[in-house]
Amino acid sequence: MPTKKKCIECREEIGVASKVCAKCGSKQPYKAKLEERKRKMTTEWRELQKKNSSLNKVYDSTNLQLHKWELLERHPLLLLGRKTPEGFHAECLCPWELDSEDFNDAIDTIRKIYEDSDYFPYSRCNKKEKKS
Ligand SMILES: [Zn+2]
User: Could you report the per-residue pLDDT of 68-84, keeping only the tens digit for each?
Assistant: First the structure.
């Protein structure tokens, strides 16, 4: 991992986590390379995935990433929410065994909170459905 980066303004070497350059005070872009990759990927990539029906490949790579986090002892839990004709539904991806009833109940509760939360724009479609 690099420990230094160059300031976007004065090109001074600064710490990789610096939000502001210590020399010139310029604000540094937040994870600029990652944001650039996300920007490039957005439209083109999504259309290509739909055309190739490659959802399973994305699931596979996501599961692989979750497995990597598990190996790093970060124990991930991923909720993938999507709009369906019946409302906003979330599926839960988790790289460890779901073998206890308590754990399954907890996951179910977390999933329902996510599906019904007012914080997420898509979950509001569930509320509208209940009123009608
Ligand atoms: Zn600078």
Answer: 999 999 989 999 988 88
pLDDT in tens, 7-42: 989 999 999 888 899 999 998 887 777 888 888 888
Ligand 1: centre distance to CA 13 (Å): 8
Cα of 35 vs centre of ligand 1, distance in Å, is 20
Alpha carbon of 37 to ligand 1 centroid (Å): 24
For the chain, the structural domain boundaries read: 1-53, 74-132
Q: Which long-range contacts (CB under 8 A, 24 or more apart) does 45-52 make?
A: none
Task: Decide: helix, strand or coil at residue 81.
Answer: strand
CA 38 to ligand 1 centroid distance, Å: 25
